[in-house]
User: Fold this.
Amino acid sequence: MIEILKNRHKGQRVVLVCNGPSLNTMDLSFLKNEICIGLNKIYLGFTRFKFYPKYYVAVNQNVLEQSASEINALTSVKFLSARCPKLFKANALTHIINTHKPTENFYCDITQGMEEGYTVTYAALQIAFYLGFKEVIIIGMDHRFDYSGNPNESKFLAGKDVNHFSSSYFSNQKWDNPDLVNSEKYYAIAKTKYENTGRQIIDATLNGACTVFDKRDYRSIFKL
Assistant:
């Protein structure tokens, strides 16, 4: 039951590992000593980055469908959107959360649902809040993409993926164009929610383009 996870990490910090190319230019040796939340296809970097996240989040239907076998094999505690009921079943490690027609813009209680906020990162911030973390350190949230078409448009990515840490991430697969404007709108909501409850979100992405959260150099945070 997901309820037993509420405030499990009260007062602690967590590293939210996003999937931008900047991960490839960072010294990620610190991850093995931190509580981490991994997102989407982060499993493509487990061997190279030498870490395994305690928690894992995926809400995008393309990711869920393309990575079903890999996600089901993860031994992380998983939080998944209810978009693919035939592919994922709730169990001791897998929590299925309703993200359909949310009635709140930020769910402090994810047993009631979750707002996707145009990015899995926003979903993960609600989960981190529910788990009780006081400080969230974000890395790999480059917040810049090379794409054609309109935001949220479904596209087929032919060739190598230059928008993620792995060139095979969405290579020759379907993906949804990012919506940075709406993502920032929801990030601002998360920032306010955290700060109003005495918590903090720090963006330690190397050369990240997002300007919503407080910035810190990851090397100073993790004493590298």
In short: The longest helix spans residues 180-196. The mean pLDDT is 97. The helical segments are 46-49, 61-66, 68-73, 120-131, 180-196, 218-221. The domain at 2-148+180-221 is CATH 3.40.50 (Rossmann fold).
